[in-house]
Sequence to fold (323 residues):
Amino acid sequence: MKYKPKKKAASIDDPTGSANAGALDIKPGQSIELLKQLHILTRDGKLNLDSRRKLKQVYHLYHFIEPLLQQVLAQKQHVQLVDHGAGKSYLGFILYDLFFKAAQTVAAAESGVPGAANGAGAATGHVEGHVAGHVYGIETRAELVQKSQELASRLGFDGMSFLNLSVAESMTHQALPTQVDVVTALHACNTATDDAIAFALKKQAQFMVLVPCCQAEVACVLRKNKGKALCNPLTEIWRHPLHTREFGSQVTNVLRCLQLEAHGYQVNVTELVGWEHSMKNELIIASYNGKPNKRAAARLQEVLATLGLEEMGDRFFVPAELA
Ligand SMILES: C[S@@+](CC[C@H](N)C(=O)[O-])C[C@H]1O[C@@H](n2cnc3c(N)ncnc32)[C@H](O)[C@@H]1O
Fold:
């Protein structure tokens, strides 16, 4: 089975009929009902302006994630994706609707299941026994998990599961597979992104797609140890409280990247969308290349030591053989 997505999306300019709403890409086969249920479209099909920012982020992410899903699908014909800090699961639902549902329908059509391509199964995207993958949403807020479960069930998105767990708890939870292919975390709060990285390392994920939120832990340790390290002129970089926060956030992502490289991932760091759409806009994409990077591991330890962050060695752990 080879899934070939239609490259060209149908673009409906201003589906809302409102000049202010701008253009929204509706992809072929995309569920309008889903967009309404996610409050991206209003009941009468107009674009909800409040949701526009989130939709823009999620669409941008989709463009980065879709080729990765294709790569996994080409190798394994089945993709396991875990989205951490899922919230209302905008990302999971859009990914499922645009990719997994389509892949299921194509798989079913190719397998010759009667009615699969044109029948009820194709209409909902669900064809019994022909799931090309699974999307798991991990979220600590029970009410959001329940709402997502209800929505998935209403839309017949049977290849989606939502678990009321913290990222840390999900590491050992039996409802999740021992190996997953893709891990995503879009604005997962504070250290949840670090936990998502630890999860992905444990589950040997081929790809990670991370858009970190603010992380306060590193800034807190920098603040605590300020007095100790003041003889180093570089500590001027984080002397003022605002700089401590911003520098702490920057260093956190630098440490994450070194950690990923140390574990054998190639890392790309870029912007998700324009800064006018989100202040938390750094996109980290990690692809496993099987080459644990000794230099990155050494650099990570050096950065921790230089900044007085040695106590964070457990958070930004490297492979035992490189420690
Ligand atoms: C800023 S929201 C982002 C939601 C969603 N990813 C999005 O971009 O729309 C962060 C979500 O992560 C959840 N969260 C925070 N810490 C978490 C943790 N340790 N484990 C799982 N979920 C967590 C919060 O409840 C919240 O729903």
Notes: The longest helix spans residues 52-76. Residues 233 and 286 are 33 Å apart (CA to CA).
